[in-house]
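Teaching note: in complex prediction, the entire set of molecules is handled at once rather than each chain in isolation. The prompt given to students was simply: 'Predict the structure of this complex.' The entities are:
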Amino acid sequence: MSEHVISEIKRDHIMNLLKEGRREDGRGVDDIRDIQVTAGCIESADGSARVKLGRTEVIAGVKIIPGTPFADTPDSGVLTMGAELIPMAHSSFESGPPGEDAIELARVVDRGIRESGMVDVKQLCITAGEEVWMCFVDIYALDYDGNLFDACNIATVCALRTAVIPGEQYGKGENRPLPVTCTPISVTSVKIGNDLILDPNFDEEMISSARLTVTTDDDGNFRAMQKGGRGSITRDELSLCLDRAVEKGEAIRKIIG
Amino acid sequence: MSGQTDMILVDKKGMRIDGRKTDEHRPVHIEAGVLSNADGSAYLEIGKNKVLAAVYGPRECHPRHLQDPTKAIIQCKYNMEAFSVSDRKRPGPDRRSIEISKIIAEALERVVLTELYPRASIDVYIEILQANAGTRCAGLTAASVALADAGIPMRDIIPAVAAGKADGHVLLDLNKEEDNYGQADVPLAIVPSTDEIVLLQMDGNMTRKEFDKALDMAFGACHEIYEIQKTALKERYAVSKEDDGDE
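The expected output is the structure of the full assembly:
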């Protein structure tokens, strides 16, 4: 994600616009792009969602299978998340096992979902200590135009909300919806020069120095954060990002319903 | 971060299980220049954490395709020894260590004058010998001292510490029990001369008020740890001067 060169002309243009509080695509600094969600689009998955955030597009699929619980949580189901930046999505992505960008992406999305308690893992127990439902979320970037963090967060949330535990397929009781409790939403800001903007596109992301992803729950409390990038942010800038994360998180929650 | 235990982590007097107050960090010990082969090194203990950091470079960048013609790159490897935790940890990199290595390298890039060494690599190795919560902060704190010990030009050195929440109290520098059974963890690293934030993560559940309090505590503790880092470097320098005198 980080080894792509943006021309000086483009960089200057974006920065000059930002001085007037404007962006190339006409958005203001704290505007997010249009969100389109197609939930339940993959029949072979137990839950799925394809999400467009502007020109960025990702797909998340859920597979739920019986498995052995972890020794320290014998009566809880298991939730794992993976992300792949496949070559289809951008010329800078290469095939092969997930690199550090994909791993960070998956772990930041995972943290928001996990820490919010969105999936009630206690209800995924089949036989305590022996068998539980294991819920795998796999996310693929399809078209990359910046801000995969928020696109993947929305796709994961929407996929989990449509997910059904396939009890009948495995002879483990009736099919039932995956128990979900809330809607954790991440909001990502990046810093360009001394400006902070929300939901960066590819060019904006490439010239940014620092990134901050903040995940809130339904009550506007903080559930996960991740600062990334080689630059730094001040405490005042952090404070602004937190305010925006609460406000826009609420807005995104309304959009995805 | 299960958030559930019968254990009382903070008693009625505001005292923690290891005898600390809520806003107190564990004792920190840092020693610079502890390895002979590395260009720079540091050993750090914070509470029961024991961490070694070593720096090699600037040196030729491998693999070559990572070279940057305008500056040096920082490559960091954070690694936990198999015996560092109560169950044996499977050796080798996992997703957690890859993420931690990435964010530590990014934090260090803010202070190292990488533009002085085009095409080079500065390699930072962090080995967690014993883990007791807060290892990424301990590793970054030690790595900063090791970089300075290697004589690499830097704008400042980076201290790091975590704050968090357990038993409903905002706490500084969580220990293992507080981390396991607590409700939130906020690792922070700053550039002390400017108070810029170069590493920040959070997981758990916090209100804005709790988060701001945690951040205040962590900022204060970072400045304290910064003084310990500087003392370690000064002590290292004092020793090497003595050695020179003897010859």
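Point out the following to students. The mean pLDDT of chain A is 96. The interface with chain B takes residues 73, 100, 103-104, 106-107, 111, 114-116, 212, 217, 221-235, 238, 242, 246 of chain A (CB under 8 Å).
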